[in-house]
Amino acid sequence: MNSATKVGAYVVGLAVVFGGAAGVGKIAGPADASAEKASHEGGGHGGETGGHGGTAAKPPGGLQVSEGGYTLVPRRTTLTPGKRTDFRFTINGPDGKPVTGFQPLHGKRLHLIVARRDLSGFQHLHPTEAGGGVWTVPITLPKAGVYRFFTDIQPDGVKEQLTLGTDITAPGDLRPTPLPEPEQVAKVDGYEVKLSGGLAPGKSSELTLSVSKDGKPVTDLQPYLEAYGHLVVLRQGDLAYLHVHPEGEPGDGKTEPGPGISFFAEAPSTGAYRLYLDFKHGGKVRTAEFTVHAGDAGVPVQEPEGEPGHDDQPHTH
User: Fold this and answer.
1) Which terminal CB of the chain, N or C, has fewer other CB atoms within 10 Å?
2) How would you class 148 by CB atoms within 10 Å of its CB: exposed for 0-12, middle for 13-18, buried for 19 or more?
3) Cis link prior to 259 (omega < 30° from 0)?
4) d(CA 239, CA 139)
5) Alpha-carbon span 202 to 106, nearest angstrom
6) Predicted confidence band at 311 (pLDDT cuts at 50, 70, 90)?
7) Residue 243 counted as domain residue
């Protein structure tokens, strides 16, 4: 068999590798926006109420392209790998029209998070509105694969933040990147970030990430999106999404600008998770990445065919 597999075969493989996640939440994947919209209009609202009047647990964020009548609608679902593209999309409301009114979330009206389905290629972007509810952002998907696009939003009149997700494909030959083993220290751009604590399934736990450079603690982190750090957590398998923010905020009189940034996060289940910490220092945003296992469940092994891949992971902001 060739050392590189085609994306089409990879997508078929996803159904096998990720199938065990179906009992936790909907497996993320391409969905017809109109079908999703019709489903929400005819059923419950936001996943809070079942079809027979019973209360159902709300699934983790990012597993649904539509929630509470709001739908993420990309203008295209295929992007050429390695080519910078103007990616455009809308958030359509319960009336089917693009939404134009959003509450700011940490200084931005909309956040776009991107990761390939093997948890590589993380990007945290901030699109701009082109008018009429159309959002646009230049983006490059560096390698072939299936990518999950997440949007953090809070439309006007909605009481809580929503995270919607959809799949975008970059066609071509694909060699999946194995999930790195858990380590307590991540190195990025001359910085070291040390992770203390872990994830516990079903309950909140504390994670502290301490930033240093050249062996010295960094005590002058700069505010980024109204915080000293932002943490995105994705579950291996279905890419269930957690976006948590640190304790305290710049200027509150008690939160120090480093070296430690503390978060409280709750893993929805056992399994492997990838953590992405955004922090700003010296006028530049950097991303430190970690693998964390929650609970004692077996973790699927992602092995490429032939030689193991050593894909570089972009940190685009």
Assistant:
1) N
2) buried
3) yes
4) 20
5) 26
6) very low
7) yes
What is the pTM for the complete model shown?
A: 0.78
Residue 248, token pair as written in the block: 């305290």
Asked whether residue 251 carries a pLDDT value surpassing 70, the answer given is: yes
What would the two tokens of residue 278 be? 């955004």
Instruction: Please tell me the total count of domains within the chain.
Output: 2
Determine the average pLDDT of the residues in 49-76: 79
The pair of three-digit structure tokens given for residue 109, joined into one six-digit string: 């009206």
The average confidence (pLDDT) of the chain is: 82
Res 65 pLDDT > 60: yes
Contacts of 271 (CB under 8 A, 6+ apart): 201, 235, 236, 237, 293, 294, 295, 297, 299
CATH number of 103's domain = 2.60.40.1930
Token digits of residue 209: 């990430």
CB 109 within 8 A of CB 161: no
pLDDT category of residue 175 using cuts at 50, 70 and 90: confident
pLDDT of residue 56: 54
195 and 159: one domain? Answer: no
Same domain? 195 vs 280:
yes
Choose among 119, 151, 163: nearest CA to 17.
119
The side-by-side arrangement of strands in the sheet containing 85-92 is 66-67, 70-74, 85-92, 134-139, 128-131
